[in-house]
Write a structure and sequence with these properties.
This protein is α/β, with parallel strands linked by helices and 217 residues long. It has 2 domains: 173 residues, 3-Layer(bba) Sandwich (Glucose Oxidase, domain 1); 32 residues, no CATH class. The protein has 8 helices and 12 strands. Strands 1, 2, 3, 4, 6, 8, 11 and 12 form an 8-stranded mixed sheet that branches. The protein is elongated, with a radius of gyration of 18 Å. 40% of the residues are buried. The structure holds oxaloacetate ion and magnesium ion. The site of oxaloacetate ion has 12 residues, from helix 4.
Length: 217
Amino acid sequence: MTLVSGRDGLPAGQALLLERLARIDFPTLGHLLEDGFVSPAIRRLGLPRRMIGIASTLALDTPDAGAVNRAILELGPADVLVIDAGGAPSHAVIGAVTVAALHARGASGVLVDGVVTDIDALADPGSGICVHARGTSCLTTKRLGGEGGRRQVPVEVGGVRIDPGDLVLGDANGVIALRPQVLASVLDAAEETDAREPALLRAIADGEDPRTLLHLG
Ligand SMILES: O=C([O-])CC(=O)C(=O)O
Ligand SMILES: [Mg+2]
């Protein structure tokens, strides 16, 4: 399964890092790291099941649909649009139309500290864009002129500071956002952990003493 759409436009090192991370079980990273874990109040609300990509940030100061649309048009390959909707906490900033536009831009996903709408369209696996947000609303943003946001600034999403260029990984368990170097530093260990787990699960199912398997014996 290709998770990193549009990765052909990326530097080789970054594309390889994203490819390797895409094969990791994301919660495995939780065994190895303490920082970068977005609040569980932000949940996966759309399908496909996972997203992985490069943070492209928007700090939304007013409920301005124009600012969101502008940001979407500026997205590059494999970007995850990260919206801090602190200036519009009750207005849905993403919905069926914006998700279709994100998909057309080759984006990998969208992460919103705020709410979204058109949930049935977002939950359709064919939407092509994995959406994480705090919840849903029928109240949406309006076209206010497009000046209501700041692009590519550090934002805070679910208690985590996210800088443009950070990597964003999300699935049904939650979202992780960290510097590429931090994720690269635990990649070997994460791959080893994932490689060991099937044998461990088999051994437990086969009745081996869990005290030994779980290092308690
Ligand atoms: O208007 C909005 O903020 C989001 C929306 O409904 C859409 O993208 O379809
Ligand atoms: Mg809509």
